[in-house]
Design brief:
The protein has helices at 13-25, 52-61; strands spanning 2-8, 29-37, 40-47, 66-69. The two termini are 19 Å apart. A hairpin with a 2-residue loop joins β2 and β3 (40-47). It has 2 helices and 4 strands. It has 72 residues and is of the alpha+beta class.
Length: 72
């Protein structure tokens, strides 16, 4: 199981609902959580057999720009 964190500039509720719908369609994501921030959201994802790149690419195809965050 991999844990990924992403940041995105999603501020409108309609964008947030669309993002949630897109995440639900990605196979191999077992759990996810969105935390609202002042200038966007933090997306935490638990997944198996999928790369962070694949998640970002899939969501980019739906119009979302995400940046992966790395923990130190």
């Amino acid at each position: 199981m991999e844990n990924f964190k992403f940041e995105a500039l999603v501020t409108e509720d309609s964008q947030l609902r669309k993002l949630e719908d897109c995440i639900k369609k990605i196979p191999n994501i077992s759990d996810w959580r969105i935390t609202k921030r002042l200038n966007g959201i933090l997306l935490c994802v638990k997944a198996v057999n999928i790369r962070a790149f694949d998640i970002v690419f899939t969501l980019q195809e739906e119009g979302f720009l995400l940046e992966r965050l790395y923990e130190e």
